Amino acid sequence: QVQLVESGGGLVQAGGSLRLSCVASGRSFSPYAMAWFRQAPGKEREFVAWIRLLDSSTRYADPMKGRLTISRDSGKNTVYLQMDSLKAEDTAVYYCAAGSGFLDAARYGYWGQGIQVTVSS
Fold first, then answer.
1. Rounded to an integer, what distance in angstroms lies between the CA atom of residue 54 and that of residue 37?
2. pLDDT in tens, 33-89
3. Among 62, 68, 73, 82, whose Cα sits 20 to 30 Å from the Cα of 21?
4. What are phi and psi of 74, to 5 degrees?
5. Residues 31, 110 contacting (CB under 8 angstroms)
6. Which residue in 2, 5, 9, 18 sits closest to 93, CA to CA?
7. What percent helix, strand, coil does the chain show, rounded to 5?
8. 29 closest CA partner among 74, 93, 95, 82
9. pLDDT value at position 28?
């Protein structure tokens, strides 16, 4: 059984930084890609960042481009999301996902439980 566990969320002031981690576990777990999505209250889940595990290619959501870095540590089965210059509108529950998708959340078969990020203005 595959399990994704996020950590690193919390409360931060606007302009601050957070690094989220997602640890993957499970036998023979080798997804095509992993990604981060987020969902703010009253809004749909939206794409944040993506990394292809074959070559660590990355993609970012346009509104957050330049403020994000997604990376991976294959030895630890962990994907990170470094978020800088955070804004109040970045407040959301952030989810780690793994699967064959890209921007479409429906293409991901595995999800973490989500972690709250709150940015105070």
1. 20
2. 999 999 999 999 999 999 999 999 999 999 888 999 999 998 889 999 999 999 999
3. 62
4. -65, -30
5. yes
6. 9
7. 10, 55, 35
8. 74
9. 72
CA neighbours closer than 13 Å in the CB half-sphere of residue 108: 24
d(CA 66, CA 22): 21
Phi, psi at 102, each rounded to 5°: -130, -90
Distance in angstroms (rounded) separating the CA atoms of residues 106 and 65:
22
Amino acid in position 60:
Y
Q: How would you classify the pairing of strands 3-7 and 58-60?
A: unpaired
Kindly give the residue spans of alpha helices, DSSP state H, lying in 20-118: none
Q: Which residues contact 92 (CB under 8 A, 6 or more apart)?
A: 38, 39, 40, 43, 117
Residue identified by tokens 């690193």 is 8
Instruction: State how far the Cα of 102 lies from the Cα of 99, in Å rounded to an integer.
Output: 9
Q: How far apart are CA 31 and CA 67, in angstroms?
A: 26
